[in-house]
Each structure stands twice: as C-alpha cells, then as structure tokens.
Amino acid sequence: MMNNADISIEDWLKEIEKDIEPTWKRLGFPAPPATKTSYNEIGIIIIDDIAYHPAIHHLTQQVKQVKVNQHLEVSCLDIMPADSKEASAKTEHGLMVLQLLAHQPITVNSHYHVGLIPSAQFIFLSEFEPQKIKVALQWILQYKQEWNIRILLNLMVPNTAEIGTIKPTSQDPFVQALSPAAASDLLVVAANGNSKAHNNLHPADFFTIGGYDDKGTVQGADQPYPAMPAGLNGDGHFRPDILAPCTYLPVPYLEQKSSERMLSYFGGTCGAATIVAGACANLFSQYPDLTKEQLQAMFIHAADRLDDGGTFLPKLNMANVLQQLLNNHRHMPMHKHNDIDDPAIQRAASLTYLIEDGKVSRADLWGYLKDDSPIVRKVVIASGLASPQTAEERALYWEYAKRDPIETGEKLLWLYQLLKEADKHELDQWIDLLTLHELEITLCVKLYLETNYETAPEIVYLPDPSLVPKAIKPVLAWYQEHSERKG
Fold first, then answer.
1. pLDDT digit string (tens) for 214-249?
2. Contact predicate 344/199, CB 8 Å
C-alpha cells in the first residue's frame, strides 16, 4: 500500500481499493459464499435501524423491520422502494451491516467480494429503548421456527448511559431486555465496543466480539484494535471472547457523497461482530444440528492468539473451524470465562451503589482517585464526579486529562466530561491533544470542533489508526491560520 503523507484520505481510499481483500478470505474461508444455496436459510435478528436503498434492492424480500410505538404496539414492515430515504448517519450503519452480510458480488482488481450469508432472512429490530426492545423481541420470537431464527446480532455496545458504573451485568436494562433471546436459545453475537472508556462490559452469555486491525489484507500485520476495551465485567468475566477484523470491511459503494471509489468501508467492533455473525449463520445453514455451544467452543479452540500487551486474545480462524467440522470435532468443552475474584470489581461495585444512593461526598470522590485500580477510578470519573462543578475543578480535570493514561480509558473519561460544557476559549488545549495521534482522542477533538467552530475543517473519522495524521492535517493548517489572525 502507498504511504504518502500528503495524499488526501479520499485519494488514499481510492488507491488502496486494489489491495483490500474480501472479508470471507480474511476470516479464513477457503472459498466465497454462494449467492444462492441449498442450505437451510437462517434468520438473523439485527438490533439496528434500516431504510431502503438501491444497494439492497436484491434483498427486499429478505428484510423485515420491526418497530414498537408509544403504546407498545408492534408493527412489522417490509423494506420497499417506496420507502426510499437518503442514507443518513442513522440508517447508513444498518445498511453497511446488511451489505456485509448479503451484498451482491463485486470484483475489484481480481478480488471477488460477496456477502457472507446472502440468502439469509434479516429481521431488523429498530428500537433502542429496553422496554421496546423486549416487546419487539417477544413478538419476533413467535416466528422463530417459521423464520428459522438462530442468531441475534446485538450492535448496542456496552451501556454508554452508565459508562462508568460496575454492577452485575444482570442489572443492565439492555441485558434484561434481551432475556427472551437467551430463553429461546439464540446465539447472541455482541459488539464489544470501540472505547477503552467502557467499564462494565457485556455478560458472558453474549458471544462478545472484539476487533483487530489487519489493514484489509490476509497478510496484514495484525494488531489489536487500539480503541477496543478488554478486561473484566461486573461479574468478573473477561471480555471479549474472540477477535475479528474491524478495519476496511468492504461493501459496494453506498455513501451520500459522490466518489470514483467502488468500495465503502465499515469498521469497529460493530463490523467485527457483523462478520462473525455472518460466519456463524453460514455454519448453522450448512450444519443445522450444530448447537450454539458447540459453535462457540470450536471458534475459540480453533483460534489463533494475538498479543494485546501480554494478554493473548483468541483471533478467529475459520479455516481451522472448518477443519474441525470436517473431522467431526464438535464436542469440545464449552469455553466459559470463570469468575475471577478480583477485589477491584467488588470495590468498584460498592462505590457505584454508594454514588447512586448519594452516600459519597464530592470530597471523598476525589480521594477515591487514589485507588490502585483503573476500574475503580473510572467509576469515580464518569459516575461520581461527572461534569466539573467550578472553574477550579475544570482546570483540575484538564490536569488529570493530560496526565492520566490512554490505555486504561481514564484520559478519555476526563475528556468526555470536559466536552459537555467546552467553549471556544479552550481551543488551544483541544488542538494540543491532536499531537498524540490517538484515534479516540482525535474523535473527542472532532466533537469539540463541530460544536464550537463551524469554520473548522471536518476531521474524517475512520477506524484505521494510521489515518489519524492525514485526518488532522487540514485542522492543523486551519488552526495555524486562525491563531495568526487572532494574534
């Protein structure tokens, strides 16, 4: 791939099209999935929004959208051309997900790209409130046999409304909302999240997918995705279960802006979870008697290992999984993350409840920042202190934000609190953060500029960490001109 620092991101994306390899190949499938199969067609519930787009015209008979109104009445809609809407940030996400699973074949520079499970049935559950999710799911599961539903793809990353808390995952309202899926023995494939700020991660009952960066090729120098959270949840279970590619996941071009590119790219752990769900559906369709426990066990036992700073995480290798199936090695012990008796989890949970009950003073919260566990300190920052209360506190937040580590997510949580009431006077401090060339921090600066400086160039956000220097270059030039005019 070319590495010219002066080339624009759009030109870069156009140039690398010739190198990006198909998702099926990067996962380890020996051949592309057939667009029409004689296998059992699998039903997949997807928690995401969707709207008609010409790129999914071939799927209109395979896609349904379930919604719930304010009276908790359920409606099930077919996705029809008459409902066509211009793709927005809200609907583009779901379109990308659907395309990864079932887009029409496209050949780019001899690379044959095709969706992972083109003949599946897709039921989009387009609600994002726990009560509505549960009502919709109960309605959908009436048709479990008719639609052959085996998988629920959960693209709601760990609860951002309570990003700092640590509790037993059974208390999470979104986990409770998905209980009908577990009761119906569906495989819940869940995105692990794209921020180290996450504290309480998904429950062990979810097949939780993290991401790695392979630069879009089989021979890429695989690296764990730098923004991926990894660690213990409130039950003492390590998350995620397995890693999959999460950068440069190609689909036929469908973005709003005109371009000479043939490919658009999805990414993050939503992308990784989607292609793992596609791989699971592909196997369920070929081996209908395969249980979800057998499948998860094979995926993890057959995985490669990727070093994440001394922690070796399983990395999906479908070639190994398929070999196990050929050898009829299905009955491996189910890999379950045993409870880890970590005192930090107990301290963090206790502190969460004290904060919710209003039994911790602000002065005491500052004292808890001396705890030796980042899990506890993240509870303090996001759940306890939250927004700065005075100008003096705001200055102190900035000190912590500059001092605390990126790796634990603490730096990000300080910045999230500072973003809430940031104004134009802090421009120098926010721009200075760009010198770190760090993906999540760059996103924070992007949000700051979009709120406070309409004249600033857009920072194009893509999951590839190596693109950060290109993405921020126009902003740095704008900032220099802005400073000179101001001076």
1. 999 998 778 889 899 999 999 999 999 999 999 999
2. no
